[in-house]
Protein 1
Amino acid sequence: MKSMRTFAPALLALALAVSTLDALEKPPSSACHARRVALAARLHGGVAVLFAAKEPELDFDPYRQDSDFYYLTGWNEPGAALLIAGEATGPVAHAYREILFLPTRNLIVERYTGPRLDANSPGVTQATGVDEVQPMSEMAAVINRLIATDRRLARNIWVQPSNAQARALVDWTGATLGMDNAPPPNDVTRLTMELRQVKDAGEIELLKKATDASIAAQRVMMRSVKPGVTERAVAGQMYASWLEHGCERASYAPIVGSGINSTTLHYSENSRTIEDGDIVVVDAACEYSMYASDITRTVPANGHFTARQREIYNVVLGAQQAAIDAFVAGKSTINDRDRKDPNSLDTAAYNYINTRGKDLHGEPLGKYWLHGLGHMVGIDVHDPADYPAVLKPGMVFTIEPGVYIPEEKLGVRIECDFLVGSDGKLVDLDAGLPHTADDVEAAMRGK
Ligand code: GLY
Ligand code: MN
Ligand code: MN
């Protein structure tokens, strides 16, 4: 029998091999540790408990980790939970503590999933990068002991509000502490939202990779859209391109809307056959190592915009440029649906659209733009934020004006991803993709 000394490195090697099997470019453990420490600083001595995402219920959905859990751990397996205790001073002081709880290995299930680590696997602390790793069976006892030592903590628990395991844990913890009316826990996602808005250098690199792969697929799209091709076949070509570029999945259901479907904002059935003379809205992008891109281009089915299609295209492109021109870091806001904020980029884009062009009845076009101008992008394609949100260095967001006129079967949306650089200037992450009508037509000719 192998001694433990030779067995341990072998298991660690297996663990590391397992963790590379999913082929994600993981955040460095130091970055995740810094995020956990930053979260702890917002807890005012409290305790946060976050659960990993469960396995998907439908067989055709691959596993995707909970976004906050991934942000804090880089851990991409189900069944885990993370506890962070913030440092507290005063009569009952306690130090910062972080514990990753892992479920006990199930060797039968592992015949289906491949090997997994548990808290007893040699090298697990190094593999996870978390200070302490304990069996999941210890979690309730650990929380009980923390609160029994410092009863103030009962009012300072932070969990994911819609998570059933978190609710059960809070109720069970109350029961173990003899508390009939345990106070409701706080919403930890409010705190992770604040942290996630400003991206670190590693996150920006992954967002650029997601965007570059999405640009490549949009170029594939421009060469594959033709009369007689189905919307779904176009989406399929884009999927193939994303996967070839190392992306794990689409970052949202791809939208290939031709003709009248171009005027349905989130059309994703993609079942129609594209016809000559159609305009086609293609809002489709991918996720690279858990980070999303979000790109829309609008193209003419036969490679040539009609005069009317080009007119509306230029109004939408001009609105995007008006928002870019109005941008001031630290002052401009995004997603101001009521357009009450004079600093919002939505107002700049809306004013442009509403004073250019007319519908078939001589009316201004503003009423044909129905959605917010943009949103934060990160681990989620719609990264959490309180809107309208002030745009600051390190943030990544979309600018995506649109005009949708069902009466003319004419919808146009142009959507690009922008980074606010450390100098406060906007960086168009989609600069490598055609923006103007002429450049779109050229790309459709393979130029
Ligand atoms: N693709 C969804 C959106 O643009 O927000
Ligand atoms: Mn978007
Ligand atoms: Mn989009």
Protein 2
Amino acid sequence: MPLIVQKYGGTSVGTPERILNVAQQILDSQKAGNRVVAVVSAMAGVTNQLIELADQVSRGNQPTNREMDVLLSTGEQTTIALCSMAINAMGGKAISLTGAQAGIATDREHTKARISNITPDEVHRLLDDEHIVIIAGFQGKSPEGRITTLGRGGSDLTAIAMAAAIKADLCQILTDVDGVYTCDPRVVLDARKIDEIAYDEMLEMASSGSKVMQSRSVEFAKKFGVRFEVRSSLNNNPGTIVTEEHPNMEAVVVRGVSIEREQAKVTIENVPDSPGVAARIFQAVSDAGVIIDMIVQNVSKTGKTDISFTLHRSDLTKAEETLNPLVEELGNSVFIETTKGIGKLCVVGIGMRSHSGIAAQMFSALADNGINIQMISTSEIKTAVTIDESQLDKAANVVHTAFNLSSES
Ligand code: ADP
Ligand code: ASP
Ligand code: MG
């Protein structure tokens, strides 16, 4: 009998009615002749409310990541119990498991733990006993048995990793949109659903703001060859297949556009242009746990140079505090300038490997609409720019139109 893993996101389980709807879908999947494992998220908004509560009792202090994980994991734990109850009330046979009970072992990095191993014996035992197994997304246990969480959006990772561990025949990510679109359909209203996308494209889109999939989960799927489908939990439309690249995929040059808000930029000016300086700067930032994105260094003509990098706005103060003493050490002409209100826009497609002119086309579309580019970075399958955040939605729309992404290719 085929084995399927389904993941239902926060909106899909956001109300008691929606939980009943999900319960019915899970039962229908079982009645269609499948063994079913369902991974569920916290109800919409719950994780954010828990973070807010932690802030309120911490009086400006940072709560420990260990306690954050104990707190945040309760969101998913609520949903597994409610889903199981709903299925049982409909006459089905369901049992809920926390991440630890499902055998999900992680490292010790609280709030952003990595899955190290899955021992799904209990999941298999329950499936053999004809149960539907409902697993809490986003959580696992450290080697010491402490509760860990897998980073925001981490239920996607639970589903994909569990699908790999139990060798599921199918993995479905059920969400509040019909699939992966050529751009966030809330921003570009005529964005089109993509039928099939390569892991690398999905990975670039996810890691540059397309939050429909958590980027780590796509990385995992690529590494272990887990083909999966993103589709809606609210209707029966076919979704998007995320899979290995095949030659036909190269015919599409730009698969999609992604945007990322709330970015900030740090520029260190007049840095001595000598070996080791960049290493010191970025080592300090990394030691402070700040994740940086684009880096640009100007060519030096005078023995001095400027180094800029982007990061998430919430990390800006930490980065400044870390860099201030270092900047003083580097000499009194060196200073830091910071800018908030930056947004990032990317075009992604594996066809870009064999096509030229994509950057020119993107930059012209932005220029024709009076949008100024601040920084540029490229990879084999991506061209990214930073622009003023207030122009991000307009930029996404003009670039989407410039590459004709609304019409069927
Ligand atoms: P879930 O709660 O099911 O995990 P998320 O909110 O994490 O759902 O992700 C779904 C949302 O991702 C959509 O509502 C959509 O606004 C957003 N999104 C961003 N980029 C894209 C894209 N390229 N295609 C589809 N959805 C996207
Ligand atoms: N509840 C977690 C979050 O909101 C994990 C998830 O939904 O995937 O990030
Ligand atoms: Mg999500």
